[in-house]
Amino acid sequence: MQFEILTVQSHEANQRIDRYLRKTLPHLNQINIEQALRKGLIKLNAAKVVAKDHIKENDQIAVAEFLAKEDASKPVKSKLNLPEKKLKFWLEQVLYKDKDIIIINKPIGVAVQGGTGITQSIDDLLEIYQEGYPERPKLVHRLDKETSGVLILARTREVATNLTQLFKAKEVQKVYLAVVVGDIRGSGFIKQPIIDKETGQSKAAHTEYQVLDYLKGCISLVEFMPSTGRKHQLRIHAAHSLDAPILADFEYGRELAYVEGFGNKLHLHARKIAFSLNGKQIEVTAPLPDHFKETFRIAGFNYENN
Question: Which of these is catalytic: 124, 144, 213, 290?
């Protein structure tokens, strides 16, 4: 019997195998998946497992070839039932698309993936961007729920794997914009390791930063350029290395992250991303969200001219 091998990427890790399979192979339902696991038609690292077992980065999932291939004569029934206004909104978030990828502007307050207490995520909406292509788009990386900005989707598993390798090789340039609490100046390079809460391991984390503007004694506008992608990296580096928590980041800045008159929305925006894929140089910038524009107006920041 022939098997197709799926390699678990970093953004897909730490979830149940059945949940991963439902997203990766949407033509299979829960009953299909559980039966295949029992019969050994789907294996994890060459071993039989059950639906509730969790997967890790770089795990190898072998799926019987006949299960991995969706029958084109039996199209997957759409699970989306969005009002026309909402559908229009999500289509308007597309910043760039071609035959390999779609890049969207993720709004603040929307989770990239589902979980406890999450009623709808970007992962649930990927069908919107399929546009007649054979596969449902794949997530390539994550943004925190309260972080807005550029998010890449891959049209195929092959493209998703290629993009993941680009991220690992540090060949994707990322620029984030943040408003931090504190009057800081200049530029620098932060090398502060971050502890992985799940494994307890210390992992290298590197962030370059440049202060673009400031309101004396109050807040500063900072551009962050991370070369690693640890969870909450910029939020931790801002609060712990710069002693200037991101505005409204109450998890890491607590009461110090609040400044009267500037609202309670996290001020972290994935502003720009640039990389080369299949010989094409791609650079995409996400427009500023409304709460950034309002903060800039109040503080007198003239960012658009920078």
Answer: 144
